[in-house]
# Entry
Amino acid sequence: MKGVKLQPFYTDIIPEIVIEVDTKADIAHEPNYYLDKTKHLIKKGVRRVIWVFTSTEQVMIAENGKAWITEDWSKSVKIEDNCRINIKKMMDDFEE
# Structure
């Protein structure tokens, strides 16, 4: 994107929505990694953070000022008012 200054971790432009997928990285020394990162993103101004947890097949939706929700990934998740995704369906379609 023209005019965007890239940095090692975050850009100068704060996105409205962030979708994260858990990693296979060793985060044993950081037991609250996902929660801390989510709080950091929301504090920076991200409106909605969506985590996809592959090992438990769950999706967590976090928004500032609202209760964070964790759902089975077979349920459709609202990305934006007119956009929903279903991770299980996407995975099933990918495997076909």
Q: What stands out?
A: The chain has one domain: 17-95. The chain is about 20% helix and 30% strand. The mean pLDDT is 87.
